[in-house]
């Protein structure tokens, strides 16, 4: 069945389409396309196969590597200059002062990426290894004593542990770790059977002068806190700080050993840097500029092949938008 529109409705439809066509032409004339250089799309920095937290982690690793590298290079330069000037008669004392300053500011200048042993520490805070001077009987004959540990100014931080009546040394150490862990202290037995503890170097100054313990009169007094005296392991930093300016075989040997150790750590840093750089290189954009352009051309070809249908749809939508709703309803019957 064929439906014909009245002459009035036909003229109204033709007028609406003509008006829409004129408005589209006027819009194109009033806003001519401006020739401007087309930047590459997409920008590589905005696309990545890895999540943002992965990129932040790699950037943090690169920053830590650079901080450790800068400090070790600075210390190496100071040591080389120290060795050279001390080999000459009448060396100025300022060389010793420069070395002591470089060692004293290690934590600040390396941002905690170089520890007391002059080893790099890129993924965690630098550690201090020390002994607490516990009596051997604490591990061999605990006798169920309850120990209360205190640390900080005014002993405001407390932790307690009840030792078992009888247990192996490793079981007793596990009990102590559960208590001392509140202060950031962790203990382990060395291959020689010596109990060594570790703590973040940032806490060391506080712990070494404030860690106390009170017992029940078995291994520690019950009436007052006993100040523990943590003893750190010997380190290259300690050996260099003990140099008083005298240049002898001992001093020369210490400086040579530290220089050799720094060279080894710099080699390790270069390996870390190469690994991180390779991982960043693998994070290439998910879509290259060439691939995006090819996709855009394919979409354009698809639109061009259906040009007539697309123009009719656009004209109908534009006509409907510019004609009153009741008129459109009447035109559509």
What's the structural blueprint in terms of helices and strands?
Blueprint: H1 7-30, H2 52-86, H3 94-104, H4 106-110, E1 127-131, H5 137-140, E2 146-151, E3 157-162, H6 169-180, E4 186-189, E5 195-200, H7 201-210, E6 212-214, E7 226-227, E8 231-232, H8 236-241, H9 249-282, H10 289-305, H11 307-322, H12 325-331
Antiparallel strand pairs: 1-5, 1-8, 2-3, 2-6, 4-5, 6-7
Helix pairs in contact: 1-11, 2-3, 2-9
Structural account:
This protein is an alpha+beta fold and 333 residues long. Among the domains are: 52-118 and 237-282; 127-234, Immunoglobulin-like, CATH 2.60.40. Helix content is 54%, strand content 10%. The protein contains twelve helices and eight strands. It has helices at residues 7-30, 52-86, 94-104, 106-110, 137-140, 169-180, 201-210, 236-241, 249-282, 289-305, 307-322, 325-331; strands at 127-131, 146-151, 157-162, 186-189, 195-200, 212-214, 226-227, 231-232. It has a four-stranded antiparallel sheet. A four-stranded antiparallel sheet has the order 3-2-6-7. Helix 1 packs across helix 11 and helix 2 (52-86) runs antiparallel to helix 9 (249-282). The longest helix has 35 residues, at 52-86.
